[in-house]
Hints:
The protein is mostly helical. The chain has 19 helices and 2 strands. Helices cover 72% and strands 1% of the residues. Strands 1-2 form a two-stranded antiparallel sheet. The two termini are 26 Å apart.
Amino acid sequence: MAADMDSTPEKLHLKAEVGLVGGVSLIAGVMIGSGIFMSPQTVLLNIGSPGASLLIWACCGLLSMLASLSYAELGTVIRESGGEYIYILRTSGNLMAFVFAFTSIVVVRPTSLAGLALSFAQYVVAPFYEDCSPPVVVVKSVAAVGILLLTIVNCLDVRSAMAVAVFFMVIKFIALVVIVIGGVVVLVQGNTANLQNTFEGTNLSISAIGMAFYQCLWSYDGWNNLNSVTEELKRPEVNLPRALMIAIPMVTVLYLLVNVSYLAVMTPREMVFSSAVAVTWGNKVLGGWGWVMSVAAALSSFGSLNGSFFSGGRVCFVAAREGHMPDILAMAHVRRLTPSPALIFTTIISLIVLIPGDFEGIVNFFSFTAWFFYGVTLSGLLYLKIKKRDLPRTYTVPIIIPILVLLAAVFLVLAPIIDNPRIEYLYVTIFVLSGVIIYVPFIHYKLFPGLLNKLTVVLQLFLEVAPVDKNV
């Protein structure tokens, strides 16, 4: 069956159904997740003063913008889906690409998806448990239902997944605009006390700055999502840079205005001790309508989860297509043309990760892994700019931009370790290196191919999937 399908004259192709609006929605829709509703207090707690926290938010927006512009050039030189994975594969080789795919698919993506699902679930069940904390089993059950629901939507149709992304982006955009307008009204009324002496108490230790950046960058996470679905983007040479230049500045300005609104309404102490800063803001400004913020935060997390799911499944799919994951994960449904095996695989791992479910620590420790691979990716761009100048590119950035982002990545990887060494960083490093041990026997020497081939044929028949050609 696998061989027959492989030799058909016309292979399947993923549909290019993501336009400019869909691209902007995918970037902004993933970036505006639970972060802006929950992270401001942790940024403030780490850095110590309102003024410095606003500076961190502005710097993170600028860093995301510069990094995404560098990725836009990579996306127009290497026009394949898969984001960092495909860029690392084409510039740094098989081993480094496999280590990235292994780390991303097995831990980083599922942890991120499970974290988003949990924050969505917490906001959904909060109104039913006003006087106490909701039972953990209820929260995790709702989170699991959210993940399964999005699996079905993403497996059924690309267009449906994009419609969900656009709808939720509009909802969360409205919610943030409400917070901004509420903050403006409070400031016009003369409540500016919390915005005076704004840099008093700033913590300038390297570890504090690094951790504040980690928490803040979690809110900006998603700036690179469109690069994961390049083959499903209409006219990527035009729409990729254009979508980035619209979405990221828009999100950065919104984030800054929302933070100013939070600070206008709450004292720094109230912010730091708030469990969900947007809900506290809603209760103080909207009174009886404060629950609206809880609903908005839940919908925001759900929309972000959908976008992460859409692009995360593609990374798994492309890694399989390049021979770094089982062949079945590189196949698409014969009628719906969605990479359903990769999406189902991502779902299964996310649900497994959801069971133990202590994510704040994991997110912190894997943020440094993510920035390590961003650094490797940007090194690849510098290699292409210096050694492969003759490659056709419809969009280019000045070389100073990837250099600045690479320096920031080095700082974000090393600063917390040097300033405050912790055993968890060693565990993460060992896990990443274990990818090398798996690569040599199973990928390089291809041990046990017969067993995998039989399983692939069975799953192909069961899932109604077939191999997919690249969209060129």
